[in-house]
UniProtKB/TrEMBL annotation:
Pfam families: Beta_elim_lyase (PF01212). Coiled coil: none annotated. It comes from Tissierella praeacuta DSM 18095. This is L-threonine aldolase. It comes from the Bacteria. Residues 2-291 form the Aromatic amino acid beta-eliminating lyase/threonine aldolase domain.
């Protein structure tokens, strides 16, 4: 199945961590020792005393974090493809009352030049006030922002009394792909708010809201409770983070997903008539192939048809994708070709 890294299972080390923490009683609502450990692990990774709140979904991380920084008359500027814009059922608008201002993009990325166009209403009480630039790293279209691009956006935001949010549902894939560290990508660039993903990279359930500016996040614990994400048995999420961030499990998992993305791309290019929209940068591939081939493949494999007009499909590899999984897909295509 190549639909999404959401479709994969859970890494055995994570399951083991959940079992190990299922030992007697411990303090509830995040006052347990495991949650403290998990918070320290993320702080170590980022090299900063960030404010950290665990939640269960990426939508919750985005919506609660952003809402905590926004007044209802303020707006978020993001790509039209952003998960907060198209895949969260208007949760941010409902929860915060804020407007989303979208920039049309082909590759899922936005630049400061494009954000400038949204700044003219600043000070005008008739219009929503742009307050946060939100980017996704990895983007929803599988592309990446360079460290310099993130830094430029953060500087630009701060110069204009704005903040920079990173939706990091796939942040580990990005850190591995750019051969960098979380600190260099997030802390040193000046990001204010990070939605730190875990679920897509081998965890069962777990995301973290990370505020790098403690002055701004004083109210986050209240937003999390109002947002129904303060788990009484928090340690079962925290234990996953401890395991995920120990022995570089995050890196091992993301490396496999990314490497399998590259392997998949190479193997697909063996097939005449199959082309890639762009070279895969992480674990997401966007591939053009003939309609009849897509139809045949869909009988055997699960993946998304992104654009029916151009016959563009999306294939996503995961922490547990193997070369055999990919070879089966390729052999299936080659066999069809032989029969034809
Ligand atoms: C870029 C991005 N952000 C956030 C999410 C989190 O979504 P969910 O609320 O389903 O965990 C996803 C999930 O697919 C995503 O792709």
């Amino acid at each position: 199945m190549f639909m999404s890294d959401n479709n994969s299972g859970v890494h055995p080390d994570i399951i083991e961590a959940i079992i190990n923490v299922n030992n007697g009683h411990d303090y509830s609502y995040g006052n347990d020792i495991t949650t403290k450990k998990a918070i320290e692990k993320i702080r170590e990774l980022l090299g900063v005393e960030a404010d950290i709140y665990f939640v269960t979904t990426g939508t919750a991380a985005n919506v609660i974090g952003l809402s905590g920084l926004l007044k209802p008359y303020e707006a978020v500027v993001c790509a039209n493809t952003a998960h907060i814009n198209v895949d969260e059922c208007g949760a941010l608008e409902k929860f915060s009352g804020s407007k989303i201002l979208q920039i049309s993009t082909e590759n899922g990325k936005i630049s400061k030049e494009e954000v400038i166009g949204f700044l003219h209403p600043l000070g005008d009480e008739h219009q929503s006030q742009p307050r946060i630039i939100s980017i996704s790293q990895t983007t929803e279209t599988g592309t990446l922002y360079s460290i310099k691009e993130i830094k430029d956006l953060a500087n630009f935001a701060h110069k204009n009394n704005m903040l920079l949010h990173v939706d990091g549902a796939r942040i580990a894939n990005a850190v591995v792909a750019l051969n960098t560290t979380f600190k260099e990508m997030i802390t040193d660039t000046g990001v204010d708010l990070l939605s730190f993903g875990g679920t897509k990279n081998g965890m069962m359930i777990g995301e973290a809201i990370v505020s790098l500016n403690k002055d701004l996040s004083k109210g986050f614990k209240f937003y999390r409770k109002q947002g129904m994400q303060l788990l009484s048995k928090m340690r079962f999420v925290s234990a996953q983070f401890v395991a995920y961030l120990s022995n570089e499990l995050w890196k091992e998992n993301a490396s496999n997903a990314n490497n399998m993305g590259k392997y998949f791309a190479d193997r697909l290019l063996e097939i005449p008539g199959v082309t890639l929209k762009s070279k895969p940068e992480t674990n997401m591939l966007f591939v053009y192939m003939k309609k009849d081939l897509i139809n045949s493949l869909q009988k055997e494999f699960d993946f998304y048809l992104i654009d029916e007009e151009t016959n563009l499909i999306r294939l996503v590899t995961s922490f547990d994708t193997s070369k055999d999984d990919i070879d089966n897909f390729i052999e299936f295509i080659k066999n069809i070709r032989e029969i034809e």
